[in-house]
């Protein structure tokens, strides 16, 4: 990747960072949490996910791993109201590092934050996986360069296809068939491809989103689902993922057409008390923010180990989301459910 291309990628991520600080300055907690989460997803998708093309050095990779860990913690603080030792002041102190992000290979992250603190893979493992991925490329590989940022700071580069189009998403637009155009970050989501399983017989969980039951399905703008894998204490096991937005509706339901969300952690590495949390979100133009309508969850222990695939009808709970899955009340007295399919993929 040329210096000009690095600068272009830097500018988009830097704008999102400044927007997150701006939302915090306004006291808009929901918007700040959403922007930090988008920033974290963008760094992982567009930088870490394209480390080979960008030419990240081992030192840069280590610093970026600390950045994504800190962004995860800050988003979690805003989401749950907990003090995890980050706070707005520390985020403002990142400005010098963010100004040098991708431009200076020697830029050092100012805080010592371990990725393991937010349930992410250690830096050494991330670098090992990058090396494995790089060695699997053919020397004459002519695939497209990594996704770009457009002038407004949104993901995508106009003339290139998205790096990863999930199952159940047609033409890059969730379940809609859609038109062939550049997607905004919210439209495109932040789903990850299937993880690389190391050993034959290893298994990974795939959650296919079928539909969200609601009595006012036509009123939601740009609905999508955020999927989070947590342990019994509510700690994130891996990074959250957002589905692309959808625009298909039916009576009392928003349709997601089985879009696939791939858990990045192999099943045997997930804690016994792990749970998958699904939050149905939508955009409120008057408030200019993302809002959670309702949430559901299922535990790994709820799944039948003898079945490769099973469909679940999950109760829908009113916000706020409890990552520990202990405090919840039904969103509606009507028999409406969040329908998903849990599928176990075996290497």
UniProtKB/TrEMBL annotation:
Single annotated GO MF: phosphatidylinositol binding
Disordered: annotated segments: 136-197
A UniProt-annotated Pfam family: Aida_C2
Bias kind Basic and acidic residues: ranges: 140-150, 158-170
Keyword field: Developmental protein
Ranges for domain C2 Aida-type: 193-345
The name this protein goes by in its record: C2 Aida-type domain-containing protein
